[in-house]
TrEMBL record:
Gene3D superfamilies: alpha/beta hydrolase, Rhodopsin 7-helix transmembrane proteins. It comes from Caenorhabditis briggsae. Residues 375-664 form the G-protein coupled receptors family 1 profile domain. The keyword Transmembrane helix applies. The keyword NAD does not apply. The chain crosses the membrane at residues 6-26, 392-412, 449-468, 489-510, 555-579, 600-617, 645-668. PROSITE patterns: G_PROTEIN_RECEP_F1_2 (PS50262). This is Protein CBR-SRW-84.
Length: 700
């Protein structure tokens, strides 16, 4: 015979039945794929989401009619739920030292690990989310305490003032004041390495963290942030019909998740719009009715990656609803237009993203804010690759420009002296001084080496661009994008070609003739019996004549081969480049929804013209010297043929650099800017399209 339940047991059983019944009533099946990789997470979410819906979502939407009461209840319920997590943090009280402080008039809470005293030496600045209207350092205390413990680093959480009591830009300025305080006093007060400061923000906090990182870079504030970590950031109010917004309306409406209506409402409160007006404008804003028609092209330009997301990031291949019909609202347009395009309010609208700190962007698959985080990440990723390619290309183009300028300087120098001495009879021109003789010899050596270096750098530039286009996602190929790799290529080629030239020039030396140089009797401009020192570059008499001829033959052969290789390979690389560029164009046409045919035609023409330039400037002289090495070595062939070939070679050598330099100068703006800056004729334009110096993207 079973014993009757005690009073406590009866109450417990009744409570379990009631709780289970409530959960059963509140239960709503989550969409397919939701937490599909973790059954535990899915079970926890099934239990936690109904509780959140019962205590926060339903009361704020159905029990309170005024916006003031809705915000009051939202803050109360979320803060209460957050406090229920407090007892778990008692376990960390001996490992993390927590202090409240005021920095530049802003309340902050600091977390300092006790066991391992700031092992990293840096600091993490955390800015909490909550739609600019909800949240506090207390609500996020469990997370920030855990961050300090797990990362063994100093963490500060900023308790900025909330809207609607405080509106843009004062909320942002609160965060900036706290950040400035840390950089001004962190080293002295907390022993922080100011070069290791990371800023972190989630949701609306991600917005504030993004803007602070952008503004510090725009103002060139030192020291710079080491990195920015953006967790499902809220970045814009110009398009609330992205894929993730439309999917929410279809599958997630009614769940206690961030919904488009709340995004629009809280964002407008942050903008300083009254609660009554914001509530009235929400239906228009969520259909993009607050956007003036003339502004749509500007939005399409900045948010061009929307088409890429539409094509590739669907939800388990489920159909996403089409865009809603726009409910245009002139009042909303007039009120919101002055502010929503401000990059300090909508950081996704900032066009210039250059030199931002290292970035980690985390988005959540079933989150309304997913797409704007992805768009920002894609923009940074594209710019990061372009910047890295640009850095590598800059180095190679600088090398090419140096080579061309040195080569031209040699002939400009010779032509200038000939022009200055044009009026003087040839027999009256004194010989070069010892210093000038060495100067001419050194200039000749560099001219000879740099000419080949230019051709090889051009070939390497084409190789790097081809490999990056074809295999740009591979880690080993990304090494080629680094400027350091290009510098290594440049100096390695320069060293190799200087060695080749020096071996040939090693058979010469500069000597002084004992008798000196005496002007002809017809040179009446000199006093009688005038004598000048006579220095000349001659073959070293200590080296056997046969050996000198052997060196000359081999040098002509090697020089010819080295000159022929780049122009022979360049056409094949050009074909590969054009093919890969067409693939890129087709991919962008599919994913981005735009055709870049004109750009493609321009780039193709440029590649073809550069190929012709390299072929014309390098191949003839290479073939000629290759041929001359055999004629000279075997000692056969009519003498006039050898002389004519020599004359042709000399002529081609003179116009060689001019052809290549002129082609590059007029066809490539990149080359043109580099050449001008090197000649100090023009300050070099910043060719960096902008980047985050290093980018990690995580999609969850």
């Amino acid at each position: 015979m079973t014993k009757p339940l005690s009073k406590f047991g009866s109450v417990t059983f009744a409570a379990c039945v009631v709780a289970f019944s409530i959960l059963l009533v509140l239960h709503k099946p989550l969409p397919p794929g939701f937490c599909e990789k973790s059954s535990i997470d899915r079970v926890i979410l099934h239990l936690f989401e109904p509780v959140l819906r019962a205590f926060y979502y339903y009361p704020s939407h159905y029990l309170f009619s005024t916006p003031e009461n809705q915000i009051w209840w939202t803050r109360l319920s979320l803060n209460t739920l957050a406090k229920t997590m407090g007892p778990f943090n008692l376990l960390d009280r001996h490992t993390v030292l927590v202090k409240d402080a005021t920095w530049n008039g802003v309340h902050v809470r600091t977390y300092e690990p006790r066991l391992v005293k700031n092992a990293t030496g840096g600091a993490a600045i955390f800015i909490h989310g909550g739609g600019f209207a909800v949240g506090s350092v207390e609500m996020y205390s469990g997370l920030t305490r855990r961050m300090a413990k797990e990362m063994n680093t100093f963490v500060v959480s900023i308790d900025y003032r909330l809207s609607p009591e405080t509106v843009f830009p004062d909320n942002l300025l609160d965060c900036e004041k706290a950040v400035d305080y840390l950089f001004e006093n962190g080293a002295q007060e907390f022993g922080i390495d100011l070069n290791k400061v990371v800023i972190i923000g989630d949701s609306a906090g991600g917005n504030l963290a993004t803007v602070i990182a952008q503004r510090r870079e725009e103002k060139s504030v030192e020291p710079k942030l080491a990195a920015q970590v953006l967790l499902y950031p809220l970045l814009q109010l110009v398009d609330l019909q992205m894929v993730s917004y439309r999917y929410f309306h279809k599958r997630l409406d009614g769940f206690a998740f961030v919904d488009p209506r709340s995004v629009a409402f809280y964002y407008m409160l942050y903008a300083g719009i009254s609660m009554e007006t914001a509530q009235k404008l929400v239906p228009s804003v969520i259909t993009n009715g607050h956007i003036k028609p003339e502004r749509r092209d500007e939005i399409d330009k900045v948010l061009s990656h929307r088409s890429f997301i539409e094509a590739t990031h669907l939800y388990n291949l489920s159909k996403v609803p089409d865009r809603w019909e726009v409910q245009e609202n002139r009042e909303a347009q007039e009120i919101l237009d002055p502010i929503i395009f401000n990059p300090d309010f909508s950081p996704l609208m900032r066009e210039n993203l250059k030199n931002l700190p290292k970035s980690l962007i985390v988005t959540c698959e079933y989150d309304t804010l997913r797409d704007e985080g992805m768009i920002y990440a894609e923009r940074l990723k594209v710019l990061c690759r372009k910047s890295m390619r640009g850095q590598a290309a800059n180095v190679l183009i600088i090398g090419i420009a140096i080579s061309d300028i040195v080569y031209l300087m040699y002939y400009v120098d010779g032509g200038t002296w000939e022009y200055l001495n044009k009026a003087i009879p040839q027999q009256c021109i004194p010989p070069n001084s010892q210093i000038f003789a060495y100067y001419s010899w050194i200039l000749f050596i560099f001219k000879d080496a740099f000419r080949r270096v230019s051709a090889w750098l051009g070939m390497f530039l084409a190789i790097i661009r081809y490999l990056i286009l074809k295999y740009g996602t591979r880690t080993k190929i990304r090494v080629l994008m680094k400027a350091g790799t290009s510098w290594k290529v440049f100096f390695s080629l320069l060293f190799f070609h200087l060695v080749v030239t020096m071996i040939n020039q090693g058979r010469y030396l500069i000597i002084e003739y004992p008798k000196g140089w005496k002007p002809d009797k017809s040179c009446t401009m000199y006093p009688p019996n005038t004598t000048f020192p006579y220095f000349a570059r001659v073959q070293n008499p200590a080296i056997d004549v046969f050996f000198q001829e052997h060196i000359s033959e081999k040098y002509l052969l090697i020089d010819g081969i080295l000159k022929c290789i780049p122009p022979i390979l360049y056409p094949f690389l050009a074909v590969g480049l054009v093919i890969e560029l067409k693939k890129v164009r087709e991919g962008r046409k599919i994913l981005m929804g735009r055709d870049e045919e004109n750009d493609m035609i321009h780039v193709t023409r440029l590649v073809i013209c550069m190929t012709i330039a390299y072929f014309l400037s390098e191949t003839p002289v290479g073939v000629s010297q290759f041929y001359m090495s055999f004629i000279q070595g075997e000692g056969f062939g009519p003498l006039f043929l050898l002389n004519n070939i020599t004359i042709i070679c000399v002529t081609i050598l003179i116009i060689n650099s001019s052809i290549h330099c002129v082609f590059c100068f007029f066809l490539s703006s990149h080359y043109r800017d580099t050449a001008w800056s090197m000649l100090c004729c023009k300050k070099r334009r910043d060719s960096s399209v902008g980047s985050s110096r290093n980018l990690s993207i995580s999609y969850r």
